[in-house]
Amino acid sequence: MQSEKRIFDDLAKVLNGVAGTVAGMGREAEASMRERAREWAGGLDLVSREEFDAVKTLAANARAEADALGRRVAALEAALQTKGGAAAAKTKPATKPAKGPY
Question: Is 92 inside any structural domain?
Answer without folding.
Answer: no
